[in-house]
Amino acid sequence: LSLSTIHQRNEHGEDLLHSAVTHQDIDLVRKIIQAGGNVNSQDYAGLTALHIASVEGFYGIANLLLKAGADVNAAQKQKITPLQNAVKEGHYEVYSKLNTNYDLGL
């Protein structure tokens, strides 16, 4: 998996990591991280992979992204963070994980 493939963007500014999270492909997410993909890359709306995982309630993927250094405080263009997304969507397991990392200052 080459970095040029990982960083290639579609018409919405989404890279391969965004797509892998959207399709809940945890193996591809892991490969992208291992290949050096940027876990904090934002699409044109400012969404990171962690925003997507928190909106969808993908706990395993959110956990993997956090371990790789994903920013729990990353705000998209509407100033909403992954933590706020998890609460809004009722994904309390994801919220709890994000909040733990937030409290630790990670």
Automatic annotation (TrEMBL):
Keywords: ANK repeat. InterPro entries: ANKRD31, Ankyrin_rpt, Ankyrin_rpt-contain_sf. ANK repeats lie at residues 12-44, 45-77. It comes from the Eukaryota. SMART domains: ANK. Pfam families: Ank_2. This is ANR11 protein. The lineage of its organism: Eukaryota, Metazoa, Chordata, Craniata, Vertebrata. The gene is Ankrd11_0.
